Amino acid sequence: MICTILLGFIFIVADAETEARKYCFIAALYSVTRLVISTTNAGLLVGCHVPCALDTTVDKARIFLYRLYTIQCEACSYNAATLKCTLLGAFAPTIGCSSTYTVYEKRTSGCTAKSSIPSNLSYTPSKCSRDSDVIGPPAGKRISPVCGTSSVGRRRIVYDVSLHDGTRWVLENYKSSFILWDEILRSYYYITGTQIYYFRTGTCVRVPSPPLDGCECPDLPSEAPLPGYVSTGVAARTETAPACDSYSTGAANSQVTGSANRAVYCAMGTWVNIIDSATTYNEYAVTAATCVAIN
């Protein structure tokens, strides 16, 4: 049994490595109501700890029962039968529970470290790849790019992961990407340099071409040119280099790049821009691409 009160608001995830790695979770019994932040899927108990540890925002507050509560995850409850995780906030002491319930409190003391496990433990290919496409796990921790460089013309490689909530993600073989083991939360995470993704299991995969059924990418959108550039009126090519005859603009953070040795290809449902030459190799996901010229 869990005695809680549901509170509605947006759950914000922080991506700061130092914030998440300082927390551990210790079981405790309570009979006082806690506020419910949200419910999520979790294949294992650690999948309940991770979203709570990542929820470190302190600027969320709501008026409830005429009291002001600062709402951030302070504990979580896990149901192994339903594989559901409930993220819990502060106590609501004005309402009691008829019996005690077990939660896992977020703490920064009393934590014990755990040795790492294989990063591809229990990995199975998704519907978008086959056993023959699997390359294997990264060569080690903090090695960039996460899946190595391979040889020219055979570099369409991604890091295929299963998140703790069961979601499958395709992560690019970005030049600065690597994985690390969080010995306190007991989970691996992937880093691009700015973004962090905790995951349950993952491995390097050579992208099938053409995509397998049900794994095609949607039409690649275009976007307005950045200041100083104009659209050429020609759609960016996909699956072949160069994507444009001059310059292209795209990616999640919108930037203008030259087109030499660059291609945009479909990586198991995700558009990825690849730079593949004898001297340069890099990959990053894109959400749009437009061929442009200098104005």
Strand arrangement in the largest pleated sheet: 1-2-6-5
Number of helix segments? Answer: 2
Helical percentage = under 10%
Distance between the termini: 65 Å
Order of helices and strands: EHEHEEEEEEEEEEEEEEEEEE
List the topology elements.
Blueprint: E1 4-6, H1 17-21, E2 24-41, H2 46-54, E3 61-64, E4 67-70, E5 75-79, E6 84-107, E7 134-136, E8 157-162, E9 168-172, E10 178-182, E11 187-191, E12 196-199, E13 201-206, E14 229-231, E15 247-250, E16 255-258, E17 262-267, E18 270-276, E19 281-285, E20 289-294
Parallel strand pairs: 1-2
Antiparallel strand pairs: 2-6, 3-4, 5-6, 7-13, 8-9, 8-13, 10-11, 11-12, 14-20, 15-16, 15-20, 17-18, 18-19
Q: How does this model look, in words?
A:
The chain has 295 residues and is mainly beta. It has three domains: 4-107, no CATH class; 131-206, no CATH class; 229-294, no CATH class. It is 5% helix and 43% strand. It contains two helices and 20 strands. It has helices at 17-21, 46-54, and strands at residues 4-6, 24-41, 61-64, 67-70, 75-79, 84-107, 134-136, 157-162, 168-172, 178-182, 187-191, 196-199, 201-206, 229-231, 247-250, 255-258, 262-267, 270-276, 281-285, 289-294. The chain is elongated and about 70 Å long.
